Amino acid sequence: MEKLSLFGGTKTFSGKLPVTNNIGKEEETAAMRVLRSGNLSGFLARAGEPFLGGPEVRALERVYCRKFGTKHAVSFNSATTALDAAVVGIGIGPGDEVIVSPFTMAASATAILMNNAIPVFADIDRETFCLDPASVEKRITKHTKALMVTNLYGGSARYDELRTLAQKHDLRIIEDNAQAAGAMYHGKLLGTIGDAGVFSLNVHKQIQTGEGGVLITSDDKVAFRAQLRRNHGETVLDELGDNDECSLGSNFRMTELVAAIAQEQLKKLDMLNSERILLADHLSEGLRRFPFLRRMQVLPDSTHVYYLYPIIFDAKKAGFTRKQFVAAMEAEGFSLGEGYIKPLYLMPLFQNKRAYPGSHCPFDCPRYKGKVSYDRGICPVAEELYEKTLLTTNICRYPVKKSHIDLFLSAIDKVAYNGPELSASK
Ligand SMILES: Cc1ncc(COP(=O)(O)O)c(C=O)c1O
Fold first, then answer.
1. What is the DSSP letter of 17?
2. Sign of the torsion angle spanned by Cα atoms 178, 182, 185, 188
3. Cα–Cα dist 222/224, whole Å
4. What is the distance in A from the centroid of ligand 1 to the CA of 105?
5. Which of 180, 249, 293, 384 is deepest in the core (most CB within 10 A)?
């Protein structure tokens, strides 16, 4: 076996992985249709049809409803704003606690804070990387109103257990499904299990429009509040004849151009996911031969769509550190993510409890009667994954080929073979 590239040997892969670009002729035609119409946004912050957007926005919402089997879909300019609308939609506000994973994109937690409610972090489980129901149960207090469940990396949380807890304690569930469009849990599409499901269309996702988001729900009230939030609800509430509803809104509207492109992207979702699954299965098979790497275990009767492929690194079995492994793989031509995301409660926002200048609101809001902790150590599994054991790769994405995965695996073979030398290095 050859010398490691890190120590002067030949690089395993000196090319570049093919760039993912799922935008084709179909999106171009859709975009031109909108450009030629001159109608780049159909929204008006006024009661009547245009309150709900233009023809492309409404067409997109119809296809989401059809695809996911929900009564409503509400489009947004991002998943971040859709999550904010989902929180207000399910009726969360000042004084409420919402349990959320610390191992997710910040928006899952900040959407709660944006509504002056309190994010309470529960730990994640080592297999799904999503909220651990046992830890969630320990965090439930009389102030808890909802669970914000991220389906991380393209896979499902343990919804049977989470739903049992939600029923027992009268909690609502928002699914942050930004990373898992098209994945399934026990025969159900993710995003349709909770009271609301949120999708992202940002440039990194399985399907994308640059920026964008969609909320799906079968709850009329959630959908109505989300529509109010999206489009200056405060200006239209009396005209809509529902003076009691909370109506503080903003401009979270999706453009016609984005909505037209999104319709084409949604048609490609299943094909793009199948490609990812084929590549991931090939990777999983290949990883079997490395005792120091634990491959992704998909929950039974569920599908994973591999936004990222997570791997657990065992330094004791490897004989070298995660850092050394990542450096060696990088030198062989393959980048790996080390640790994913610092557990969110360790960010200054939570450590200093400072969401607004000059105050600690909503943490010290008189309406909040609970006592939340953001101390280091509250979620040991998330901290361990971040600091020591988790690796991620985004190699399982179209148009990457199985031959690239084979090269990736050969690079690991080479690193493993040269382990003693690697472990002696700095
Ligand atoms: C789990 C999760 N939630 C929310 C978001 C926010 O999505 P957007 O960029 O569309 O606002 C992301 C984006 O990366 C995400 O991964």
1. P
2. positive
3. 6
4. 6
5. 180
Q: Which residues, at least 6 apart from 46, have a Cβ–Cβ distance to it below 8 Å? A: 235, 236, 239
Arithmetic mean of pLDDT, 371-381: 98
CA angle 272, 54, 35 (to 5 degrees): 70
* Residue 361: partners with Cβ closer than 8 Å, 6 or more residues away: 116, 355
Ligand 1 atom nearest the C-alpha of 212 is 10
- Placement of tokens 């990812």 in the chain: 276
Output the pLDDT for position 411.
98
Q: Is 200 in the pocket of ligand 1 (CB under 6 A)?
A: yes
Looking at residue 33, its amino acid is R
Tell if the pTM clears 0.85, that is, is over it.
yes
Residue 256 and residue 54: Cα distance in Å, rounded?
A: 7
Q: Which two tokens stand for residue 4?
A: 């490691």
Cβ of 273 below 6 Å from ligand 1: no
Using the atom order of ligand 1, give the atom closest to the CA of residue 80.
Answer: 11
- What burial class does residue 344 get, using C-beta atoms within 10 Å of its C-beta: 0-12 exposed, 13-18 middle, 19+ buried? buried
Q: Which atom of ligand 1 lies nearest, measured to the CA of 151?
A: 1
Percentage with pLDDT > 90 across the chain: 96
Q: Quick check: 426 pLDDT over 80?
A: no
Pocket probe mutation, ligand 1, options 128, 131, 150, 202, max atoms within 8 Å of Cβ: 202
Pairing label, strands 188-189, 144-150? unpaired
pLDDT reported for residue 243: 79
